[in-house]
Amino acid sequence: MIDGALPYLRCPNCGQELRRQEQALRCPRGHSFDMARQGYADLSAGRLPHVGDTAEMVADREAFLAAGHYDFIADALADRTPEGFVVDAGVGTGFYLARALDKLADSGLGLDVSKPALRRAARAHPRAAAILADLWGPLPIVDAAASTVLNVFAPRNGAEFRRILRPGGVLLVVTPAAGHLRELIAAHGMIGVDPDKEAKVRNALDGHFAAVDRTELTRALRLTPDEAGTLIGMTPSARHGATAPTEEVTVTASVQLSVYKPI
Ligand SMILES: C[S@@+](CC[C@H](N)C(=O)[O-])C[C@H]1O[C@@H](n2cnc3c(N)ncnc32)[C@H](O)[C@@H]1O
Question: What spacing in Å lies between the alpha carbon of 9 and ligand 1's midpoint?
């Protein structure tokens, strides 16, 4: 539902407030933005450098997450999410946003460039809204709107995340740790974890945020060949020749959950 997020949205062209008029969002200056039939609003203002995850990747992501394999990540995020408006930057199917909202009384908003992802995110939770917007550009969200910004395996825009967070708000970032999915990387051609990941995250957030907590979360996942196939399929690896195992496999899922405060 877009209504809960409306007070926090701003026109991507002029920065003014947005109101809903039938199947569009409009600002007082007359800029108008369509709402898709599937419930998300397009606030990209035509600034879309790429299309994000494909329909196939999103379908695999939905199937893999629904099987519960990453519930431990969702639970850890939800436990660290305070009351208040939640923005999920790079929301995907809305899985993590929905799990956080389950524990809160407030609304949430997911941002993504992938239309197949947004179709799911828009109906992931009764209090979740979904917006088509590029994380690398200015976000169509008012200053100091969010108590929490979630960012799970998605691009980070330190300056904008800082601007949209309330004073005292929290940025929760999940990134792959060194051994993440190592069995599928070694034997099945999956793309490995970027060794510069930590430095890249630091570069994106330095000057805007200070890390106040870091937790490594690790689980051994027992996966059927189909499940391993969906795990590979939800990443770019499938397009780079990675192949699913033909038998059950144990896979290490290892991520870093970092808690940041604005500085
Ligand atoms: C690896 S997926 C993670 C999705 C979700 N956070 C999850 O973990 O299930 C990365 C997501 O970021 C989105 N994305 C990539 N680049 C983006 C950009 N510049 N702006 C907005 N979303 C972007 C993709 O479309 C995709 O849904």
Answer: 20
Ligand 1 atom with minimal separation from the 61 CA: 9
**Count of CA atoms in the C-beta half-sphere (13 A) of 121:** 31
Six-digit token string for 99:
């799990």
In the reported structure, the alpha carbon of residue 138 is separated from the centroid of ligand 1 by a whole-number distance in angstroms of 16
Mutate to test the pocket of ligand 1, among 70, 95, 113, 237 (most ligand atoms within 8 A of CB): 113
What confidence score (pLDDT) does residue 48 get? 86
**Which residue, 115, 169, 112, 98, is CA-closest to 140?**
112
3-state secondary structure of 5: helix
Pairing verdict, β 41-42 and 32-34: unpaired
Q: Report yes or no: 144 and 165 within 8 Å, Cβ to Cβ.
A: yes
Q: What is the pLDDT of residues 92-127, one digit of tens each?
A: 999 999 999 999 999 999 999 999 999 999 999 999
Cα 175 to ligand 1 centre (Å) = 12
Closest CA to 251 of 259, 262, 239, 242: 242
Q: Does any ligand 1 atom lie closer than 6 A to the CB of residue 172?
A: no
In whole angstroms, give the CA distance from residue 43 to residue 36: 11
Q: Are 76 and 150 in contact (CB under 8 A)?
A: no
Counting beta carbons within 10 angstroms of the beta carbon of residue 174, is it exposed (0 to 12), middle (13 to 18) or buried (19 or more)?
A: buried
Ligand 1 contacts CB of residue 152 (under 6 A): yes
Work out the burial of residue 138: count CB atoms within 10 Å of its CB; fewer than 13 is exposed, 13-18 middle, 19 or more buried. middle
pTM: 0.97
**pLDDT, tens only, 57-92:** 999 999 999 999 999 999 999 999 999 999 999 999
